[in-house]
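Input.
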Amino acid sequence: MWNKIERGRQGEALARDYLEANGHLILFQNYRKAIGELDIISFWNDCLHCSEVKFWRESSGFHPLECFHETKRKKMRKVYFYFLKEFPAFFHLTPSFNLIHITEKKEVHFYSSIF
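Output.
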């Protein structure tokens, strides 16, 4: 059993490897602002992908997509706008907010454009 920090690092490494294997160029990991964080920001297919990585136990009783309530979506959007202010060269790209779900078996499930 991994502790929380190890799970986070392992999950983000698996997510990064998955994205790179599928043609994404990783721009940033753990882009943090006071309001929140974007786990991975990548470029692929003329889109700026902002991905949330979740290590999720299947025995928890619900799906990680259920975590994307309105408050979480607002925080991710705000961090994205801070990113655009800091790096205006990316402003012209279409954003895609994604979930990367890592299972206990280290399987990677990618959900694109979830909101």
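The CA atoms of residues 42 and 59 lie 30 Å apart.
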